[in-house]
User: What shape does this take?
Amino acid sequence: MPTFLPHDRWDAWLDHDLNNIDELKALLDFPNEAAGLVADPVSTKVNATRNNGPELIAPIELGDPQTLF
Assistant: This one.
């Protein structure tokens, strides 16, 4: 499972000698873990492995929702 950690905790997280569960849990405990994350809608082209390039992560404008009702 991927995790997000502040840069200053990377070395400790990757330390093979760190095996104390409480210390590891403490590395995951930080306020506002979503700080700096942004969710943008992107093209459906990201769903195909044949597509590749920086344009795949360019934010797109969403139109009005298309629903049956």
